[in-house]
Write a sequence for this structure.
């Protein structure tokens, strides 16, 4: 009964999405206020029904209603409650429902926080979002209904994939989806602007906070996902260039370009065509991400669907979205030229350069991800494109991005003097090079990669310091505290996010150069040495939990005489699927992680234990956190919260 | 020759005793590395990171615990230990399993686009950027028409908006 109610609510949500897609757009085209006003209530009612449907599905999981097929194949009476709840999205159908629900959340958020938008513009935004929602809800209903019954019901469910029974997986998918789906708002703003012909600074200003928030979610989602892979997959890798990871990374790359391009459009009125293209691109990449993960074209740890009808449906959706938006773009393109002029050496040029590089990197990642699929589809042979390829392509393309990132904030808008910049920047660059080489020498790992990484990181950090000092010096006379307070949040956001990139590079470089590992056979009382730490094996005990049994080893970690940590890696067997899992144990520190995972027991009764020492690995996630914080600061800037229309007046000039 | 015989026995006994001592020392203190040749193991690991575990989902032979991956690691180890070079081992595996087994695709007709693609994209991007910037430099902004001029004058008269003063 509950499942049928959920199913019915989903159908109502589809009807409402259709209304939201059509009526406000017609209203905006005919300038009929009454029709435009339909958008808001339709969006809000749709959210209500989607939440209701989602709650019904969750109910089936919590109460172990195994007459619902989805619950039967992804839950179990013994699954801990939290994983019954997260199990709802640990599968294709449920995750689509989550997608649609987050889209609806974003839509309603737009109706609340952007209520000062001109009515016609809001109507168009809601219309576009309604159309996307109709696409996704109908996809869910027609190809992947989560409420399908399984009759007769089975007595016991098959449990959630043990890989997903982890705290990281509780928050990773919702964050990632909020990010993916968030770019649909940026997309809707761009399409609404194309439809109305109003592509001006005001449009960029309305769109910016939404895009930034979506980017923050995506950043956080990717970071959590990589952290999950780090401790869950049992050997301490943190990025695999796996197609599913690439699927989330491509919208991130284009999204990063988009938030910078929006900044230029808002401040200088330039790059409008670029900004629109990037908004279309970022959203298309989000759709492609969904397509890659969810249609079963690719197999990966997270991809669970295998139904060609679904793939075809998403493909059609993708072609429609890209086709319609590019056609619109071509139609309006003549209106998009112009904007403030700028010289060759200017802030605009550095940002445009970085935009182009981001687009090239995205293209390269896309090429590497899709190439094996196309070759296979064309029967030209099966190949694998893995980390060596992506690293060979990614690193050289990202180096100029980082260089431009450091230089950019020092360059003046419109035009600057090259010689002045050189005098301003060269000393810090030289100091960084010396520092980078010196540090590489000091840690005893002089390869071009280590030197390059440390040099870039040093330059980012020194550059950030210089930038802050310069900013404070801008207002002589005032007290330092007053000067700091006078800096707008958006500037702090930029500064923090760029600093985060520096911290991130330190983490990546150090762990890449200096990590070490050792596989040993251990018996009780035996110890092994790694990177100055002594690991002593204190034996193995059996652990029984509701849905798994485990062998849990205890290892004592000492540095000389000092006791550092007691680690308890486990080897688990999940009962419902008879699936073995390794559960690593970590001692996380600011400058290194000590990481232990338990392998098999061998003939003589000893256990195979993998020991790892990972210097500076936390800095990778610290860097991501700083980037995310930067985004939050930027989105929280005061000026977005003032009356929107007042600002619009300033932008009208450029529309005409 | 009895003397020789006894000497041999004595030697063997001594070796055995030493070996036992060694084991006892291990049991009490040091754990035994899984491999007795760490240098070889490092080479095996480095190479296996570039090999796909054929029965897994996007996992390398180095990461996977599947039986096939263990077999492949052993095979790599044996061949490297027998004095073959990394390239020879890769060639051997590719001959047996096809290009699918290596994460670095070979450069050939069907993969040419994959390898030169990023370079082409970069050149196209930079060329497009350069063209665009040059055209921009030569562009003179369209002169204001009378209506715009009047509007600008009105705006100026009303005073500039304070919020645009910074950044």
């Amino acid at each position: 009964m509950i499942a049928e109610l959920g199913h019915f609510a989903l159908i109502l949500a589809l009807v409402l999405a259709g209304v939201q897609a059509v009526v406000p757009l017609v209203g905006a085209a005919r300038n009929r206020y009454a029709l435009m006003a339909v958008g808001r209530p339709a969006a809000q009612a749709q959210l209500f029904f989607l939440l209701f449907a989602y709650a019904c599905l969750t109910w089936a999981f919590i109460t172990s209603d195994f007459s619902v097929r989805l619950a039967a194949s992804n839950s179990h009476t013994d699954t801990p409650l939290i994983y019954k709840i997260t199990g709802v999205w640990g599968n294709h159908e449920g995750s689509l429902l989550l997608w649609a629900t987050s889209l609806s959340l974003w839509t309603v958020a737009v109706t609340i926080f952007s209520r000062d938008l001109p009515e016609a513009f809001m109507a168009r935004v809601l219309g576009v979002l309604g159309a996307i929602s109709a696409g996704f809800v109908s996809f869910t209903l027609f190809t992947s209904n989560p409420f399908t019954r399984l009759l007769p019901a089975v007595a016991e469910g098959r449990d959630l994939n043990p890989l997903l029974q982890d705290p990281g997986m509780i928050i990773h998918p919702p964050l990632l989806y909020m990010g993916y789906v968030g770019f649909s708002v940026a997309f809707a703003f761009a399409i609404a602007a194309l439809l109305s012909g109003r592509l001006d600074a005001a449009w960029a200003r309305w769109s910016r906070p939404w895009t930034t928030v979506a980017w923050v979610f995506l950043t956080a989602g990717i970071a959590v996902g990589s952290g999950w892979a780090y401790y869950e997959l049992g050997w301490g890798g943190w990025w695999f260039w796996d197609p599913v990871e690439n699927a989330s990374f491509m919208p991130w790359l284009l999204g990063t370009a988009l938030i910078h391009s929006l900044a230029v459009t808002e401040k200088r009125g330039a790059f409008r065509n670029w900004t629109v293209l990037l908004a279309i691109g970022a959203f298309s990449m989000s759709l492609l991400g969904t397509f890659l993960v969810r249609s079963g074209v690719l197999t990966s740890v997270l991809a669970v669907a295998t139904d060609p009808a679904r793939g075809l449906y998403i493909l059609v959706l993708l072609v429609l979205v890209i086709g319609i938006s590019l056609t619109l773009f071509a139609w309006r393109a003549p209106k998009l030229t112009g904007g403030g002029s700028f010289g060759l050496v200017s802030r605009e040029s550095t940002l445009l350069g970085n935009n182009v590089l981001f687009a090239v990197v995205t293209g390269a990642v896309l090429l590497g991800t899709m190439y094996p699929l196309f070759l296979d589809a064309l029967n030209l042979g099966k190949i694998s494109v893995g980390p060596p390829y992506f690293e060979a392509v990614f690193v050289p393309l990202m180096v100029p991005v980082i260089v431009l990132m450091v230089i950019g904030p020092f360059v003046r808008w419109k035009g600057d003097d090259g010689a002045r910049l050189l005098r301003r920047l060269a000393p810090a660059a030289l100091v960084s090079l010396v520092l980078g080489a010196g540090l590489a020498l000091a840690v005893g790992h002089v390869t071009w990669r280590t030197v390059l990484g440390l040099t870039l990181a040093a330059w980012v950090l020194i550059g950030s310091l210089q930038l802050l000092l310069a900013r404070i010096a801008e207002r002589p006379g005032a007290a330092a505290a007053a000067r700091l307070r006078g800096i707008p949040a958006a500037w702090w956001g930029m500064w923090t996010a760029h600093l985060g990139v520096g911290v991130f590079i330190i983490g990546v470089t150090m762990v890449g150069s200096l990590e070490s590992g050792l596989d040993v056979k251990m018996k009780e009382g035996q110890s092994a040495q790694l990177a100055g730490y002594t690991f002593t094996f204190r034996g193995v005990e059996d652990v029984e939990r509701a849905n798994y049994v485990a062998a849990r080893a205890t290892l004592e970690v000492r540095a000389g005489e000092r006791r550092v940590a007691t680690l308890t890696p486990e080897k688990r067997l999940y009962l419902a699927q008879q699936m073995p899992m390794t559960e690593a144990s970590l001692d996380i520190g600011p400058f290194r992680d000590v990481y232990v995972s338990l392998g098999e027991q061998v003939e003589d009764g000893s256990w195979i234990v993998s020991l790892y020492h990972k210097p500076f690995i936390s800095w990778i996630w610290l860097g991501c956190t700083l980037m995310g914080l930067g985004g939050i600061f930027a989105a929280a800037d005061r000026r977005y919260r003032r009356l929107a229309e007042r600002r619009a007046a300033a932008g009208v000039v450029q529309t005409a | 020759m009895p003397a020789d015989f006894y000497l041999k026995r004595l030697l063997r006994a001594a070796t055995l005793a030493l070996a036992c001592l060694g084991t006892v020392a291990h049991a009490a203190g040091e754990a035994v590395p899984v491999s007795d040749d760490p240098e070889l193991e490092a080479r095996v690991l480095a190479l296996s990171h570039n090999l796909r575990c054929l029965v897994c989902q996007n996992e390398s032979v180095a990461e996977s615990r599947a039986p096939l991956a263990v077999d492949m690691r052993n095979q790599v180890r044996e061949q490297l230990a027998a004095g073959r070079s990394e390239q020879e081992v890769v060639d051997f595996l590719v001959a047996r399993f096809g290009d699918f087994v290596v994460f670095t695709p070979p450069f050939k007709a069907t993969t040419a686009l994959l390898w030169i693609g990023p370079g082409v994209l970069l050149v196209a991007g930079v060329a497009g950027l350069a063209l665009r910037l040059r055209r921009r430099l030569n562009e003179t902004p369209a002169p204001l028409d009378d209506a715009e001029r009047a509007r600008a004058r009105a705006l100026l008269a009303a005073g500039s908006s304070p919020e645009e003063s910074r950044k």
The CA atoms of residues 273 and 336 of chain A lie 6 Å apart. The first helix of chain A runs from residue 2 to 30. The radius of gyration of chain A is 27 Å.
